[in-house]
Structure formats: structure tokens, C-alpha cells
Amino acid sequence: MKSYRELRVWQLSVDLAVEICLLLENFPKHELFGICSQLRRCAVSIPSNIAEGHQRDSTREFLKHLSIACGSLAELETQLLISERLGYLKPEKFSDFTARLQELGRMINGLQNSLRRKLD
């Protein structure tokens, strides 16, 4: 694959990051520098790390960045759960995001497994 832009996992994670950023427009203004900032950072971190890792010179570096993306995925899920419990996010929307995060997690895991096989 020549570009990270061709990776479906990158495309879907960019879509998710954009949706999270749009969602934050409806959060309380007093959360602008709190949970909103955290949500934005971890959502943007996922596709950013996939892209950065893909552009690195080694498979091991790509795997390292995919691991970071997985960490950001878990962080995003946690922040969304907190948002839902605070009443900033409807339970149905939280469930939708959770399903998408699980799918992205499976995709990243599959990519990691494929890359690890290349190292063997």
C-alpha cells in the first residue's frame, strides 16, 4: 500500500474524529477545556498515529504507532462513557460510538497481526 489514505481503518478513524469534533459543539461550554479537549485529542490521535506509523521506515515503528492508536481508542471510549454518565451524550449515541470503536479496534488488531506475520 502506497499511502495511509488507502487504509480503510484510517478512513473510518478520520470519519469518527470528525464526528466527535462535531458532537462537541453540543457539549456545555464549561467543558471546553475539560472533557471536550480530552475527547478531541484522543479522537484525532487515532488516525494521526495510523498515518504517522505508516510513514515510518519500519514495520516495528508502524506496530508501535498502531499500539498508541489502540490506547487512544480505549481513552476515547472511556471519555465517551464519562460524557454519557454526565448526561452530555445520549445512551443510544454512546452505544453507536461503542460499536464503531469496537470495529476500529478489530481492524487495528487485524492490521497488527498482519504486520507481525511479516516480521516472522
UniProtKB/TrEMBL annotation:
Keywords: Ribonucleoprotein, Ribosomal protein. It holds the Pfam family 23S_rRNA_IVP. CDD domains: 23S_rRNA_IVP_like (cd16377). This is S23 ribosomal protein. It comes from the Bacteria. GO terms for cellular component: ribosome. SUPFAM superfamilies: IVS-encoded protein-like. InterPro entries: 23S_rRNA-intervening_sequence, 23S_rRNA_IVS_sf. The keyword GTP-binding does not apply.
